[in-house]
Design goal:
With about 200 residues, this protein is an alpha/beta fold. Helix content is about 25%, strand content about 40%. Strand 4 and strand 5 form a beta hairpin. The longest helix is centred in the last third of the chain and has 17 residues. The N and C termini lie far apart (about 45 Å).
């Protein structure tokens, strides 16, 4: 019970162009899902969107699923643009250009990444007897969340920057009669850090 979980988060920003956004403009945050070995979880993308939309400096965010459904099939995993040049070609489709204009999209943000669990150690055993049951043991593991956000300026058809976040944390599961998990909130910290930096970036501050 004296153990405390610990999480450390690093955020890096690479800016390639000027940014800014008006009150009637919006962004859409989409998860990259073209990789064969993993896909960016929709829950994480939604988390970043919710955080970006909050506060006095919040930005209008079009929900991912609403955007993808409205522009079906152009932003499905197999057909989504991988480069700004692909987006420029896509915008020649009148229905795509009209929908993006209807949403007021100024920036498209592509989020790519995953959380990996490593370094599992320890064991816990449980038993039931005439006097009752219980568990005894100790387990621990490390989680590492790595996510990148690439920001595309729809008006200029250029990539204006990249934000990277890396959050690591050690979790523990001591068990004396009852297991008591001490979980490092790695992905939640990565979401919050990425969202705060993204707000600052898009607002041009």
């Amino acid at each position: 019970l004296l153990l405390a979980n610990c999480t450390s988060t690093t955020v890096d920003e690479f800016r390639q162009g000027e940014t800014g956004i008006e009150s009637d403009e919006a962004i859409v945050i989409l998860g990259r899902r073209q990789a064969s070995d993993y896909e960016t979880r929709a829950d994480f993308v939604d988390c970043v969107g919710d955080q970006v939309n909050r506060g006095s400096d919040g930005i209008n965010v079009v929900p991912e699923q609403q955007f993808v459904d409205a522009l079906f099939p152009w932003f499905e995993p197999r057909t989504a643009p991988l480069r700004t040049q692909d987006l420029e070609r896509l915008m020649t489709e009148e229905i795509v250009a009209d929908k993006i204009d209807e949403f007021g999209i100024r920036y498209i943000v592509w989020v790519d990444g995953f959380t990996e669990t490593t370094g599992r150690s320890g064991s816990i055993s449980c038993a039931i007897g005439p006097g009752g049951g219980g568990c005894f043991g100790f387990g621990s593991w490390e989680d590492d969340s790595e996510f990148d956000a690439r920001i595309w300026d729809v008006g200029e058809m250029t990539s204006v920057g990249t934000i990277s976040t890396d959050a690591t944390g050690q979790s523990y599961l001591p068990a004396v009669v009852v297991p008591i998990p001490l979980i490092a909130r790695v992905e939640a910290n990565a979401c919050s850090s990425l969202a705060n930096q993204l707000k600052s970036f898009v607002n041009g501050s």
